[in-house]
Amino acid sequence: MTKLITVNERGALTLPRDVRERLGVTRGGQLVVEVNEEGAVTLRPGVVMPVEIYSDARIEEFHQMNESPLTGRKLLWRKAR
C-alpha cells in the first residue's frame, strides 16, 4: 500500500482511514516510528503498558490478601508423577 500524504505547517500529518484501520490505530492510539539508515520510515502500532511501582505497604497488602485466607489451613502436597 502506497499513499501520498501532506505534512501541515505545524509538522502534523493525517494518516488515511484505510491505513489507520490496517494498523488498528484508533483515536488517541500511538505509533512507533522507525527511520533506517536510508531514510525509510516504518510505522508500527505502539503499545503502552502502565507500570506500577509497589511500595512496601502495597506489597504487604498483597501478602495479606494472598496469605490470610490460608492461615490455619493444612496444605497437602503431592509428589509429581
Features:
81 residues, two-stranded antiparallel sheet
SSE blueprint and pairings:
Elements: H1 17-23, E1 31-35, E2 41-45, H2 56-67
Antiparallel strand pairs: 1-2
Would you tell me the structural class of the helices and strands?
alpha+beta
Number of strands: 2
Strand content: 5-15%
Helical residues, percent? 10-25%
Instruction: Provide the residue-averaged pLDDT.
Output: 88
What is the radius of gyration computed over CA atoms, rounded to a whole number of angstroms?
A: 25 Å
Walkthrough of the structure:
The chain is α+β, with helices and mostly antiparallel strands and 81 residues long. It is built from two helices and two strands; from the N terminus they run αββα. The chain has helices spanning 17-23, 56-67; strands at 31-35, 41-45. A two-stranded antiparallel ribbon has the order 1-2. A hairpin with a 5-residue loop joins strand 1 and strand 2 (41-45). The longest helix is centred in the last third of the chain and has 12 residues, at 56-67. It is elongated, with a radius of gyration of 25 Å. The termini are far apart.
In summary, what is this structure?
With 81 residues, this protein is an alpha+beta fold.
